User: Fold NADP-dependent 3-hydroxy acid dehydrogenase YdfG from Amphiplicatus metriothermophilus.
Amino acid sequence: MTYRGRWALVTGASAGIGAAFARRLGAAGANVALVARRRERLETLAGELRRDHGVDARALPADLADPAAPDAILDALSRERIAPDILVNNAGYGLPGYYHASPWRAHREFLQVMVTSYAHFVRLVLPGMRERGFGRIVQVASLAGLVPGSAGHTLYGASKAFLVSFSQSLAAENEEAGVKVTAVCPGFTYSEFHDVNATRPLVSKLPKYMFMEAGPVVDGALAAVERGHVVYVPGLWNKYVAWLMKALPRTWAAKAVRRQSAKFRRSE
Ligand SMILES: NC(=O)C1=CN([C@@H]2O[C@H](COP(=O)(O)OP(=O)(O)OC[C@H]3O[C@@H](n4cnc5c(N)ncnc54)[C@H](OP(=O)(O)O)[C@@H]3O)[C@@H](O)[C@H]2O)C=CC1
Ligand SMILES: CC(=O)[C@H](N)C(=O)O
Assistant:
């Protein structure tokens, strides 16, 4: 699939899965608007995309914990007459510990980044996509959004379950308008995610077959959105876990998640 001449907006583009999306989309000919907090990383990546793929690229540093950020980003793009045909909602992190152990501000900001900013970006780009009869919306959820909640990182699985359900409704509402929507649900993926939330010592003890590189996750996600696959789980192991969690009685699945997640969720 070529996206030559189209603009993509990628959040969380300064590292990991988001940076992989930006590179794959650039390689497919898309111009790419890059959003994250680390300006220097975005500018370096924008230069790489221009140099390696001959596409246009913009660095748009922003903290998505700021409720005004999505409007400011789309206003900046609109001033340059840029209207995204592709949105990759990806920015995210894990907030370790039990719910009562973090202040409400930490939870409020988490929900702003992981849930509200996603919904806000979609609302800002969707009308234009529908008018043009073309749109691709990829929302990076997680396998954690398809399984019962774990102890620790309390809002994480819930935020990802929201993205799965939100994407399903968006797909149903917009299929006729030429707008395709996919929630991609990776399992453990090599990125900075587990360094940022200081769980690397825990997850590094997990079997390697539980992990995937970001590139194949992204390749699968882009192929999934093109074929209209609304909830996409990359990798055989993750597909097996998703299937097992659906096949088991809920109480058994919840017990299994509780047992397994104790190995990689921080309780403090
Ligand atoms: N890695 C994994 O095992 C899995 C990850 N996921 C999901 O994938 C997505 C990407 O994570 P991943 O690539 O792994 O992790 P990384 O930590 O490598 O990348 C996270 C990205 O999100 C950005 N980000 C974080 N907080 C903010 C903020 N407040 N404002 C703007 N940007 C922000 C970071 O940029 P910066 O710090 O520069 O702001 C960075 O670009 C997340 O939604 C995560 O939940 C899902 C399943 C598995
Ligand atoms: C980052 C992830 O979503 C991973 N599956 C985890 O739960 O840590």
